[in-house]
């Protein structure tokens, strides 16, 4: 019986470690998430696992703007009503999503997928 208990603690510890490795998630939040997942019905945990897997397997950068998408180009780049004379450079996809949620910008984007820091550049 003790072996099963040790094993379950290992699985829980691994889940907590995985959650704690996410940005903005501390140890306590990771523990709360892990224990919440343990209480979820199996179909909900499977749906969560499937959603995480789908993100890593199906999303990739848009060939034009580097937004994340499942197709070759994202829905923003496919939208012919966009003003191609306007280009907004954003740091992350989440910045693009925030602007799209606001619904006020109708131009195109370029997603840097990270911060440019010329002072920290190695010259490459």
Q: What features would you highlight for this structure?
A:
single chain; 124 residues; alpha+beta; Helicase, Ruva Protein, domain 3; two-stranded antiparallel sheet; two-stranded parallel sheet; elongated
SSE diagram, text form:
Layout: H1 2-20, H2 27-39, H3 42-58, E1 60-61, E2 68-69, H4 75-78, E3 83-90, H5 93-102, E4 107-111
Parallel strand pairs: 3-4
Antiparallel strand pairs: 1-2
Could you walk me through the main structural features you see in this protein, from its secondary elements to its overall organization?
- By secondary structure, this protein is an alpha+beta fold.
- The chain folds into two domains: 2-58, RecR Domain 1 (Helicase, Ruva Protein, domain 3); 60-119, no CATH class.
- Helices cover 51% and strands 14% of the residues.
- The chain has five helices and four strands; from the N terminus they run αααββαβαβ.
- A two-stranded antiparallel sheet has the order 1-2.
- Helix 5 (93-102) links the parallel strand 3 (83-90) and strand 4.
- Helix 1 packs across helix 2 (27-39).
- It is elongated.
- The chain starts with a helix and ends in a 13-residue tail after the last strand.
- 9% of the residues are buried.
- The model has no long low-confidence stretch (mean pLDDT 90).
């Amino acid at each position: 019986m003790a072996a099963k208990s040790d094993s379950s603690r290992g699985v829980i510890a691994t889940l907590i470690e995985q959650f704690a490795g996410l940005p903005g998630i501390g140890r306590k939040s990771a523990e709360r998430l892990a224990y919440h997942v343990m209480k979820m019905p199996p179909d909900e945990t499977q749906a969560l696992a499937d959603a995480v897997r789908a993100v890593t397997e199906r999303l990739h950068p848009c060939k034009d703007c580097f937004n994340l998408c499942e197709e070759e180009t994202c829905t923003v780049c496919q939208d012919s009503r966009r003003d191609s004379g306007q280009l907004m450079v954003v740091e992350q996809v989440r910045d693009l999503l925030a602007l799209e949620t606001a619904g006020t910008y109708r131009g195109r984007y370029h997603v840097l997928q990270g911060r440019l820091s010329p002072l920290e550049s190695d010259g490459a």
